[in-house]
Amino acid sequence: MKTLLLFIVFIGIRAVRRKDDEQFQANQEILHNDPSFDELEEIVENPLGAKVLQTVALQIKSGEGIDSIVSLLTNLKSDLEGKQIQQDGSNAAIQSQCKSDMDSYSQRIQLAVNEINDVEFKVGRLESDIEDYTSELDLKQSQIDTFQGAENSLRDLRLKQSANYNKRLGQLKEMINAFQVMLPKMHELYDKVQLSDAESFVQEEAFANSFVQLANSGPSNPILALVQVTSMMDSRSIQTIIEKMEVVRDSLITSVDEETALEEQAIRDNDVTLNEIFNAMQALTREKAADDESLQDTIRTRDQQQKRGSDAQAEFVASKAGMKQRRGQCQELLVQYQQNTIQRSREIDIIKKTKLNVVKSFIQEQQIS
């Protein structure tokens, strides 16, 4: 007998009352020696196969027709194949979605990597610009400090030069004033000496009075010494002294004019230099302010790039973690699909092994008997 008949016999042997062990052992040997027994055992061990055989056996016992049994097995097989087709389609959609998700994660990772690399390049360039701006600011500040020091030095020097000028001018004016006092007296003395009689007592007394007036005009000056010297000179010598004194006085007046001109020129030169220093400092200050603004803009841009890099790094980490998680989910779904496919293939194979010719043969045999 074929598979189904063996199963029915197998069930019958278990159901009947075992009247004696010898008959039971003989029936067992018949079953085990049948070539279809292994196939029957395989069907029985499968949960679906056992249910199918039990259902077919019940239908046979209840007198169901062959068409009903054929329809049952055909529908069952078609249902399993339909489910497999449906699961194949579902798995194809899942795997397509998984591939799309993996591609999306890969793209996100690559974009994040590109962002990180771009940020590293730009931040490096910005850091270099920041160093350049900082160095330029330090240089300009040093130049401003140098000009400021030069301005302070020039102002101090001008104050000292002005003080020295005022001192020299005062000394020259004092000397000129002294000559202006002495020269009229010397002219008076010259006139008296020229008119005098050297042996006249009256004239000697007049000379003495003139000498006293010269001496009293400036006891701290060289006037007294001049009086003492000129008191022993004749009119020609006195005239020579007067001429020399006038030359010296005129020279002093010229020196005053020259000193004044030099002082005024020094003031003008100093003002020009200070103005040039001021303009240079103003230009440097404007350039420094522009460089400082550029520096602050560069720092802000650098900070924005670093924030962009941090965001890209976070996106990279999140994408890697998401890809890993999604890959695990897809792998689990694939494994589940493969397991279900294997299980359903076995079930379809079980249905195929439950052959209709066995059922027909069994039914025909039952009818003949």
Automatic annotation (TrEMBL):
Keywords tagged on the record: Coiled coil, Signal
Any coiled-coil regions, as ranges: 116-143
Keyword Signal among record annotations: yes
Keyword Coiled coil among UniProt keywords: yes
Signal peptide limits: 1-18
Designated name of the protein: Trichocyst matrix protein
